[in-house]
Amino acid sequence: MGTWGTGIFQNDIGDDVKTSYINKLKLGKNSEKALEELISENQEVLQDSEENFDFWFALSSVMYDYGRLTENVKNKVLAMIDSEEELNRWSVTDLNKRKKELIKLREKITSEPKPEKKVSVLKRYASNWTKNDIYYAKITDICKSDKEGFLVFLVDDIIEYDARLEGLGDMLPVTYLKYLKSIPKNIDDINKEAFIKRFTYDSFTGYKFLWISDGLKKANSKFILFGNEDFKRPDTNLKMSFDEKLRSMTYIGNITNFI
């Protein structure tokens, strides 16, 4: 794992621990559950003679910041700060810098505990669209654009995708997109129009749009359900690869870039 400085969070393990702990709180897990899961998920790290220092130091620091530092974690870290194994990890050049960081960590976690910090819990988003639904909306109703006409959203699938936070489990629509000058009267009106491209990478053109939750809830009332019909698709791949999901991901407010 990488290390780019002597600070408590200037290494991959420490940075990951901080992010993971905060994310667990954002998922609504209490202090005990967040700690239990972090320890369970990092058994390989904890068995490493060097990486376990980075784990516990970072964990004690972030737990203190959020007013959740336990006596067991604090006492474990205080013992590790004084250990020869920790100091032997560092070169002569970095040793004094590291000692200063450890002094700051000791002073921090032994100071007056902070009150428990309130964390806003993120709610899972679940689209009410279903596969083969076809929606349309007036362009100016859903995005900042002067272009007249309508956008048609043809729902290919609803997938679970953690675009906002790992473990949140948002259920997001994957659609194709078409531009029409007027409201579609039948499926033939829709099928004859061209699909809008989402991206081109190497020789592959992607037509699917993975809509992240930002703006979807607000814009939902602007969409009109045309119906649920099996429509013509521009591709045959049934499942999206990880890379395709990343390249297809966007939000409603960004739709002006494609029309």
Give the overall shape.
elongated
Kindly provide the radius of gyration, computed on alpha-carbon positions and rounded to a whole number of angstroms: 25 Å
Provide the domain count: 2
Question: For this entry, what is the oligomeric state of its chains?
Answer: single chain
Q: Helical segment tally?
A: 11
Using DSSP, what is the number of strands? Answer: 8
Strand residue content: 15-25%
What's the helix-strand series? HHHHHHHEHEEHEEEHEHE
Q: What share of the residues lie within helices?
A: 25-40%
Distance between the termini: 43 Å
Classification by helices and strands = alpha+beta
Q: Concise description?
A:
38% of the residues lie in helices and 17% in strands. The protein is α+β, with helices and mostly antiparallel strands.
Describe the structure using short key phrases.
259 residues; alpha+beta; 2 domains; six-stranded mixed β-sheet; two-stranded antiparallel ribbon; 11 helices; 8 strands; 17% strand
Could you characterize the architecture of this molecule?
The protein is an alpha+beta fold and 259 residues long. The protein folds into 2 domains: 12-109, no CATH class; 133-258, no CATH class. It is 38% helix and 17% strand. It has helices spanning 12-26, 31-41, 43-46, 51-65, 71-81, 84-87, 92-109, 139-142, 187-191, 216-219, 242-248, and strands at residues 133-138, 150-160, 171-180, 199-201, 204-206, 209-211, 224-228, 249-250. The strands form 2 sheets. It has a 6-stranded mixed β-sheet. A two-stranded antiparallel sheet has the order 4-5. Strand 4 and strand 5 (204-206) form a beta hairpin. Helix 1 packs parallel to helix 4 (51-65), helix 4 (51-65) crosses helix 5 and helix 5 packs antiparallel against helix 7 (92-109). The longest helix is centred in the middle third of the chain and has 18 residues, at 92-109. The chain is elongated.
